[in-house]
Please model this.
Amino acid sequence: MTLLALPTARQEEWRWADMGALKAAAEAPQHETGIDAASLFLDIEGPRLLFVDGRFEPAHSRPGPVQITQQVATTDHPLGSLTDGEGWSLHLGKEHAALTVQVVHLGTGGESHVPARLMLAEDAVASVVETYAGSGWANRLTILCLERGARLMRSVRLLQSEGFVSLRDEAEVGEAASLVSIFLGAGGMGSRIDGSLLVNGKGGFAEMGGALLTSGTQRQEAAVAVRHDALEGTSRQIWRAVAADKSVASLAARVEVARGAQQTDGEQSLRGLLLQRSATVNLKPELEIFADDVKCAHGATVGELDKMALFYLESRGIDRARAQALLTRAFVGDALARIGEDAVREAFAADAEAWLDTAL
Model:
């Protein structure tokens, strides 16, 4: 019944999505992963949640202020709407300063659906780090609401060795609030990162970006739309894609500026790097502007490693493989540098480094 409700490549917004890999992951038999769930948590103080095949695992968790609750998926998104059931929610006031929550999703095969809801009251500050590992189809819906002056740093790493991860984020950013969401796809799974961000408070800031690293015949995709409905809003969509072998990475970024959203500052930067010419990177930036006092820009480029830069490094005694790794790391690091916490940023950089060691 779940598979019957899936979108198809005939729909424009899903034309690059790998629904075949999603279906195969959903139907895959369960098997032991051999992964120690504890090793997936970073050495950071704060609440920890472990979900195994979409079910909360209390033995390896310490929820703190996070609640495990039954939720109804309040979305019309075709994948997000499937996530009714047990999930997690976090409601923070300004007394919770700099709280870091870690959530690990471990799959052993088949499909799992988990909803999440994050509500940050006025001036609340929090960080959420999510990790996906194992196999199967992990389908998640995250609803975010940031009230006046709230700040949330969200860092998500996709490390599943196989299967598929589909993420749907729906966020509202209030007056002077800040939401930064950074994603890293560095596993062997297929993926679809789907975001809808609404900046509806004066001076609100929303950012959603990251890096997708693909190899073999893998396909990963991100599709994000940011809508500005208020004065002096700012948004950033900074994405990097690295594709090797016959893999495909696709990035679609959209900014909508409503008629009354004057003095909006919106930026999109989509860049793709082909490690071999047999790989593919698809980029689709879009701007729709109805206000006349705005600063919006987008850029989209796909290319190979700079031959002059490679020559320069090799002329300084660095072998070609090492030179390629240095340039690729710098390319990816441009997006991961947006992560505000040192320990989290270093973990993401290590994940990217591990991928480079196998791809180059």
